[in-house]
Amino acid sequence: MDLRHAADLIEWDERVYMPPGGVSVHGEMSAALRRLAHEKFTSAEVGDALTASTAEVADVDPDSTPARLVAVIGRDHARATRVPADFVAEQAAAVSAAQHTWAEARASSNFALFAPHLQKVVDLKRRYVAFFPPAEHPYDVLLDDYEPGMKTAEVKRLFDALRQRQVAIIQQVAARPAPPAAFLSASYSESEIWRFAVDVVSAFGFDWSRGRQDKSLHPFATGIGANDVRITTRWVDGQPLALLFGTMHETGHALYEQGVGDEHQRTPLEGGTSLGVHESQSRLWENMVGRSRPFWDHFFPRLQAACPGPLNGVSAAEFYAAINRVQPTLIRVEADEATYNLHIMLRVELELALIEGSLRVADLPDAWNARMNEYLGLTPPNAATGVLQDIHWAAGLFGYFATYTLGNVIAAQLWERFGATHPNRDADIRRGDFSVLLTWLRTELHQHGRKFEPTEIVERITGLPPSPEPYLRYLEQKYVIERLT
Q1: In degrees rounded to 5, what are phi and psi of residue 350?
Q2: How far apart are the first and last CA of the chain?
């Protein structure tokens, strides 16, 4: 775990502070550490210890930490021993170079510059899949790294369950006059928005003695253990509040990491149980909390005082409607709640085609533009606002995107459950008090780390496995019943 943390720290530095000339040395360091960690974890010594430990916990409570630790290590070990250490090092070096070139390609909107690196990443992913027994779909192997047990067929069923009703919501909202929102793209002070965002996430409960925030090209969160959790955000010209909502989003991830129980530190039980559950935390704090009317009843006067120019004469109701407006956008991280999942469906469908071999890397920009036009009625004017906008493929994160939609679904299910058991939820938020919510999340979810499987932990908390119905109810209540425009 220490070696993995060191590699995480190097990769954080690559994306935040590394000078351009450091690409090769960082790639070599990352590859060496990932190889060492992999070799140690897949060693005969760990295998023997796992066999002995499995026997030791055979008669203990299967929900106890020792039993769960052995189960999680057993699952991870079984997967890791299928992958050669040389491959792990090769992949670490490849994605290090790919991320650097992606940043250059995005800055110049030049997909051709990035294409050879993406091709190598895709080839590596296909090789990775081949290390495992044949699955119903090769993409199942990649999904399992981020969402244990989830299958491609389940993702498709989830998308099918969401698509029709989300499109209906979008159509209903589109038939109404759009709320005024010019003040959202006015001239704001970056430093003032930064300070305001820091105040907000401090109120959420982010522990600055165990975390920090920096700027990066693409926002992300990195947990180097629960006592060193780092978030990043970015300033977008013409979209000043992207910094605020990006900070809230990444803080959701960070609060999860900071809340993992001490007994799980430096063990494979630290961190979140899955990427979908992890994403539920970022979407819950960014959207269910950060885009709610009670939140802005409390915080809008403070934002207005911090940024009096662009918000002069704007009411809290007008601001709330504007930040929740439904309007197709080219950029996923700036998408509204009603259209966000369409961005995810697009990416997952393209990933499937790349892994299947039915789509060539060279044809990816045209395929991206065609689906963007089909789903959102927009055509990117360049690669930077289209196929190059996300870092995930450069980072080798194939199988990751579906967890964003699953995160939306789980977030709404948790939010609904919390509201049912805590009727003062909105009143607390309206006072700027998030302590009850954070304590509930820490008790029910965060402290357990990876102790329970994702479907299991959701069912333990809410009484039901992940279901799209609470999320659809949430959207329909907000945009159809309340007629928020």
Answers
A1: -70, -40
A2: 48
CA distance 415 to 284: 7
Here the tokens at position 333 are 């991280």
- At residue 233, φ and ψ (nearest 5 deg) are -145, -175
CATH number for the segment(s) 152-481: 1.10.1370.30
CB-based contacts of 389: which residues, under 8 Å, 6+ apart? 106, 330, 331, 332
Query: Which residues are marked as active site?
Result: 250
Cβ neighbours for 439, distance < 8 A, ≥ 6 positions apart? none
Give the residue extent of every domain in the chain. 2-42+81-134, 152-481
- Length, in residues, of the chain: 485
Task: Collect all residues with Cβ–Cβ distance below 8 Å to 199 and sequence separation of at least 6.
Answer: 302
- What single letter denotes the amino acid at residue 118? L
Q: H/E element holding 121?
A: helix 111-130
Measured CA to CA in angstroms, residue 355 lies from 129, 137, 290 at distances of 9, 10, 36
Measured distance CA(139)–CA(474) in Å, rounded: 30
**Would you say the pTM of this structure is higher than 0.90?**
yes
Write the pLDDT tens digit of every residue in 295-347: 999 999 999 999 989 999 999 999 999 999 999 999 998 899 999 999 999 99
Distance in angstroms (rounded) separating the CA atoms of residues 63 and 60: 8
DSSP track, 67-115: HHHHHHHHHHHHHHTTS-HHHHHHHHHHHHHHHHHHHHHHHHT-HHHHH
Amino acid in position 237: D
Q: For residues 369, 374, 376 and 380, what is the CA-based torsion angle, rounded to 10 degrees?
A: 20
pLDDT tens-digit map of 433-476: 999 999 999 999 999 999 999 999 999 999 999 999 999 999 99
* Residue 432 parent element (H or E): none
For residue 380, the SS3 value is coil
CA 456 to chain centroid, in Å, comes to 20
**Residue for token digits 């259209």?**
339
